[in-house]
Every structure is written in C-alpha cells, then in structure tokens.
Amino acid sequence: MNRSEMLVDPFQLIDKKTRKQLTRRSDLKGLTYLGGHFSAIGCTGFAVYLTYGTLFMLPAMFIHGIVLACLFAPMHECSHGTAFRTRWLNEFAYRFVSLVYISQPTWYRYRHAVHHTYTQIQGKDPAMVLPSPTTWQHYIEQVLGWRFWTTFPVAITKHALGTMRPQDSWYIPKQDLPRIHNEARFMIAVYGSVAALAIYFGTLAPLIYWLLPRMMGEPLQRVWRIAEHKGCDEGPDVRTNTRSTKASFLMRALCWNMPYHSEHHVCPQAPFFALPALNKIVGEQLHPMGQSLWAVDREVRRTSIVSRADADHIVTARKAKNEQIDTSWVCALD
Amino acid sequence: MTEADAENWHFAGHADDFDDEDIAQVRVGALAVAVYRAKGNFYATQDLCTHERAYLSDGVLIDCVVECPFHQGRFDVRTGKAVGVPAFVPLKTYPLKIVDGKIYVNVSRAQADADHRLQSQYRTRE
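Predict the joint structure of the above. Result:
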C-alpha cells in the first residue's frame, strides 16, 4: 500500500501552514517531559527503598513499574524524532530510554514505520494488537505482556547472533542488518554487565528497582496498546482504524499525550505537545474518542472476544476464502 | 548560455515567499521537485521520499535536514544523503539559482521524464 491507495491522505486533513506550526519541535518541552519522567521514576524508586521489606513494598513496586513502563511513550516519541528539535539529543535519549525500557531502537524504528504504513492490516502490521478472532487466552496473554517477555529475548539473541526472525526480514534493508546486529550485542553486553555486577556485589537491586517493577507495570501499557487500535476498522482509513482515548492529566503526562493516538496517526510528525491542539482541529473527523481506558477495554472485551471454538470456525472460514490471517503474534512486542 | 541550457532552468517561485525552513513543491513536467530554504540558502531535491510514497514538501525541515511526513525518514537537502532510518536511498538533488529574487531549478525535460519514470517504480515492499 502507498499513500495514494489510502482512502484519505491524512496530510490533507490539515492545511500546510497549520501543519508547519504543529510540527515545530522543542528541546525545552522534550527536556521538561523527560526530566519529569525520570524524576518520577526516582521518586517511586525511592518509595520502594523506603518500604523495602514491608507490606507496602509491593504496591510501591507496582506504581514504580507503571512509571517505568510508561517510558514506552518517550521511546516511541524519540523513534519518530519528535521528542526534541536537536537531532543528537533525540538520538541519545532514544537509545538511553530504549535501554531502560527494554527495546531495540533501530529494529523498533523499522517495525514502527511498517505499523504506520499498514495500520490494522492483518499479516502486514507488525504492531497489530489482538488481530481477530480474539479469544480470552489471547487477551490475557496480551495484557500480561507474556508474548513480549517470551519473544523479545529470543529476537534480540537472534540479532546478536547475526540472524533475524523470518517475519521481520521483509521490512529491514539487508544493508542495515549489521547495525541491528551490533545494537543487539551492545544491549546484551549492558544487560549482562548489570547482571554480573549484581551477582558480584550480591545485590537484588536491578531486580527490585528495575526488572520486576517493569514487568508489574507492563499490563497498563498493554491495555493502552489494545485501546489504540483494537475494535477499530481493520482497514487503511486512518480516520477509522485508530482510536484516541480520554485520560486524566497525570496519565496524559506519563504517556506524553499518546492517548491522542488518532491524531498521532494523522500527523506522525507532530510532537507530543501538539497533539491536543491537533485534536481540536481534526478530532471530529476521526474515530469517536474512547471515554476512558477502562471503558474502551470493557467494550473490547464485550464485543471482540469469542470462544476458542468460534475462533477456530472463523479461521477456517477465512482460510477457505484465502483471506490473510495473522496468527503469528509478532504484534505483542509493541 | 545556449538556448537549450536556458530551457532547462524552470521558475520555482520567489525567494521572498520563503521563510526559513519552508518547503515548496514545483512540477517539471510530471516530476515533483522540492525547493527548500535552509539556514538562508536554497536547495532542490526530488520531492518523493525514497522510502515510501510521500512528498517531502509535506514534511518538516530542521536546519538542513528534511523529514518525511509519513515515517520520519531523514535526508540532508544539501547532498540528498539519507541520514535517518527508515530512509536508506539518497535523494536526487538538482542545481538551483536565484536571479533577481526569482528561484530557478535546473532539470532538463528528458531528465525530468527519466527521474519520474524511476520514481514511479518506488513502491512499498510487498
């Protein structure tokens, strides 16, 4: 698919002058948000330290994990290059945040570019969350982040060994594979060093302050990923295949305004702080806004989940019609 | 300058109409050319992104780097070099001159047709 094959060219929804204003980048705003995010991580991490060994430690780790998992937002923003005006600052932040969040930067950038081209196209969109038919097992695995934690280590190990999963190789130019392989080696070396130092000093700190909370916070991110596209049209029209969702001030701040997801897909070059203004301009032309994350999630569960028997029946019927079906679950990485 | 040389220079707008970091599209036959004002200087490249079908004139120019509106692939407009994933293949650049405040881009009709034919083969990896 290319732009001319889309039902509507999203750039034509906004006039050029307005677009130029909305796409202006700001180092100050990027640094404010990133500084705020890491300050929040510091505060919640300190709360874990203060509650260490008490009953309050688990809720503290959970809150710390939510803030940590929300690093997806700056990671995603930097992948678009919209977090900062200064290029090197954006790239430095991208690599650092990816390392903490646990994502491979160049691989994610290619994967995410394909997601923007093939949003909601089964078998093509590598970030397609819960492609239909969806069963309870799929939903629970998605929400727990099970596929992420079981797939990412395998993928990064393959990259470090100089290979690539077959489902990824079609969208990455062969000439750029060495960069992805070296990136994976670097990340494994860093994570390995952290593990080795922790063992040497006999400390559980990386587990208590990073990995376990990161896992505990993952479900909230997974529910956000579901809300962004699940239940929207599985087709190329950007006005109907993506959903924005109302969120509290705190959640919008932690997610760098990514609840304005339709607006992001209409104009991926607009930085996070311009998305509310973009919503005022194009919001009415887009998929109806979800009333809350939990309302969207409830609706998705009510309307999209089918029994395993029904899912098998649907798959069989689609196969008979030669329709493309995504059962690879590569989607759950994003 | 021969008559043929003169024919290859195509009017591309008035320099005064460009603010810094403005981009405009001009057509030479079917070929789309992007004209940029970057750090006070003017440059011209092919308008179609080499990664996927999107016009760079819809994109963002920061300093001397243009960013594709669709996937944020990046190119240096002075050289055409791809400087940001997912863009990988460089852009074609075209000579440009300003005479009495008017911008002219140098592309022969034959070159424009050839470049347009080449670009029409760009496609998303299927």
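Residues 109-119 of chain B form the longest helix (11 residues).
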